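As promised in the previous annual report, we have extended the structural survey to additional targets. Below is the entry for Ferritin-like domain-containing protein.
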Amino acid sequence: MMKWFPQGRRRTEAPRRQPRVAAVATTKVEFGELTPETLPFLGQAAYIQLELFENLARAMATAPTLADKASLSTAARFTLRKHHRLAEEIRALDEEPALVMAPFAPAIDAFRAATTGATWHELMITNLITAGMLDDFFISLSGSLPDGVGSRVAAILSRRPRTDVVADALAAAIVADPQLASPLAMWGRRLVGDTLLVARSALRDANARGPVDQSIEPAFTDLIAAHTRRMDSLGLTA
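The corresponding structure token record, generated without further manual editing, is:
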């Protein structure tokens, strides 16, 4: 059985932001019959982007500096654009986005409420981890969608701002106050389990499956590996 929370040696040095490198392409796993129908896939993915935008907007509204507010507005704009483009895919299938998203709203709203965090820094870690993991997972899942939808969805979700403003703001905060590192690392470890449950819920017949189906374990392993790299870039233990 796959471990949700990879173990790592606790660091004692002050957290450091590693230089930004080109993003590594997410491995696409052939999910086959595990991929949901196109409309449910698009509805859940679109609503997740809307929730991620709301989290970024909340972080922007409560940011400690004007510079942070301005930087976060860029990330929020990118995320809202992803939502709009996914909604356009739904409309192209002659469906109303709000109706297609509605079945997923209660669970995703509950996820957001449970993962917002108690402080601005926890909210920022939530933005970094949940957006990264869920974008990666839906890109992987999109490979089995028909009629060119999958490639368009992958292109939509792969878009990133030139600068990862959330990670940069967190890195600066940790350098300024190294005591933030331990509680933020702990909060990040909690987020992984909740986020993986959301990812797993996107699979067809998810409720009928065991904790981790062997056929999809590589995708979850990839998510954990990418998450670990994000935490490492901040000097935090995943």
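The chain has one domain: 32-233. The mean pLDDT is 83. These points will be discussed at the next consortium meeting with the crystallography subgroup.
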